[in-house]
Amino acid sequence: MSIQKGIIFGVIASIFASITAAALLGSPSSVHAETFGLPTADAPRRVAPNFLVTTFAQEVISKKSLKGHPALLMFWAPWCQVCQRELPLLAKFYLHDKPAALRVLAIGFADTPSHVEQFVKDHPSTFVFPTAYDKADEVAQLFGVFATPTFVALDAQGNISLIHRGGGLRDDPQYLGFLATLQ
User: Fold this and answer.
1) pLDDT per residue over 129-182, tens digit each?
2) 55: which DSSP letter?
3) Is the dihedral of CA 121, 70, 59, 77 positive or negative?
4) Separation of alpha carbons 174 and 81, rounded Å
5) What is the C-alpha radius of gyration for the chain, rounded to an integer number of angstroms?
6) Full-prediction pTM beyond 0.70?
7) Whole-angstrom Cα distance, residue 35 to residue 23?
8) How far, in Å, CA of 172 to CA of 166, rounded?
9) Which of 55, 76, 134, 172 is at a distance of 20 to 30 A from 140, taking alpha carbons?
């Protein structure tokens, strides 16, 4: 009897997970399991949400201010060990390999403003690009970001070209394709 209950529970849980994923990620025609429902080359691109942040240098950056410029947003947190490895790589890219048209913005979230600001101050050779704090994680929520690090690439028209969760962005074929369009 308990094996049958386990099987029934598993089936119900699978159905629930499928329904939840479909509701969160959109229609199956534009979702590929390996991309976690994120834009793919053959799927229509999603328009980025309107957002606004103020960097620690007091520069206001918004979707509107980025219009006409492709952008790479990195959502990160000071306690995130993967972020601590990826941020210096992003700084190196920013200083040496970044296409001229690309705007880069690091957005600290999922921590207190003082922790984020102190981490930035303690690592000046890493934060060579504009960096902001996401008050109440509002921008992260708009983009559906819930993990650190998460990279979001926007095309010049304000569409989301890709979302990459975790490390290894430099090896992501979609990211490399995005960069190739900027050369």
Assistant:
1) 999 999 999 999 999 999 999 999 999 999 999 999 999 999 999 999 999 999
2) B
3) negative
4) 24
5) 18
6) yes
7) 16
8) 11
9) 172
